[in-house]
Amino acid sequence: MRIESIETLLRGPLAVVRVRTDDGVEGIGQTAPYEAAHTVRVLHSMVAPVFLGRDPWDVETLVDTCLRTHYKFPGGFVHRALAGVDTALWDVLGKAAGRPVAKLLGGQARDTVPVYVSSMRRDITPEAEAERLTALVAEHGFGAVKIRVGEAMGRDTDAAPGRTERIVPLMRRELGDTVDISADANGGYSVGRAIRVGRLLEDHGYFHYEEPTPFTELDRCAEVTAALDIPVSGGEQDYALPQFHRMLSERAVRIVQPDIGYIGGVSRARKVAVLAEAAGVPCTPHCANHSLLQLFTLHLATAMPSCVHYQEWSAEETPWTTGVYEPALRVEQGRLTAPTRPGWGVELTPSFVREAVGEVSRG
């Protein structure tokens, strides 16, 4: 079996990848979303040539070869493009073996995966946020939610004056004590402000506290983690495995959050989950939208022993993620069922293929 072609299907901020082998197996994957047109250019010019003509069963070796080949370009776009090819190859392998990708990643560690409903919004009043998240909990049985506090990379600013201090206690009052609540600062705080907000979260029994300080400032995050009892999480923006090793070994976080799209695919995200298991730290992969990445994350969370907590499920419905694949994932009683079909277990919809702009690299 050899990789014969690598195709991208671009629609808006989303790029899906199809890999075909010389014996007719086809796998689908996806790059990280946003600025997808730039990612597609990198994929065809820098990533695809490393993989064409090679054996897909060598996926992890090929991923490593690609990153070593482009060692002068360690930034996000190479990893975003690499994620598209890597995830498509895992689909190829699952279909060739007749097994779900989760089985190839290590087996089925759990039959269902709990998910938390995750707000992506700061342009909403605390009262409106509480109302809509309470409704989603009632409708789908979520056992946990996540809200946004502060302002993304905001240097101690808030999305609206006093919003953080209002929304934290309000969410607890409205949701009661049976729902776990977490908060995401998106790197918005200095150490002192982050600790003060963290103590507010502790006072109201919050579950975890995500990215309190800028992700580039790991030492500052470690200070916040050491000062608080609430688990601090991070890692979604990172793509270098040594950084994750440092994050875990220095106890900079108590929950680690690799993003399959940002880190370069399932092959590398799985390595972070294994590092987390060895460090005794839960792994909760970041996944902020309902694209194919949500499905890839489900397979990873199904297989990895360290993925013991709720996994992320966006509260936002985005037009560009709808109608991409079928059958679509469904949350039932706050949980997703472990996949059972070969590969990722889905197919692209004909309408998505028709609407997308295609480009092919061939061996």
Ends distance: 13 Å
Rg on CA atoms, Å: 20 Å
- How much is the average pLDDT? 97
CATH superfamily of the largest domain: Enolase-like C-terminal domain
Percent strand: 15-25%
Shape: globular
Under the CATH scheme, which class of the largest domain? Alpha Beta
The unreliable regions are none
Main pleated sheet: 8 strands, mixed
The overall number of domains is 2
**H/I helix tally:** 13
Brief synopsis:
The chain is α/β, with parallel strands linked by helices. Helices cover 41% and strands 17% of the residues.
Chain-wise SSE layout:
Layout lengths: L2 E9 L2 E8 L4 E5 L5 H16 L7 H11 L6 H22 L3 H5 L6 E7 L7 H15 L3 E5 L14 H13 L4 E5 L6 H13 L5 E2 L7 H10 L4 E3 L6 H9 L5 E2 L3 H4 L2 H14 L12 H12 L7 E4 L10 E2 L8 E3 L9 E2 L1 H6 L1 E6 L1
Parallel strand pairs: 4-5, 4-10, 5-6, 6-7, 7-8, 8-9
Antiparallel strand pairs: 1-2, 1-14, 2-3, 4-12, 11-13
Helix pairs in contact: 1-2, 1-3, 2-3, 5-6, 7-8, 9-11
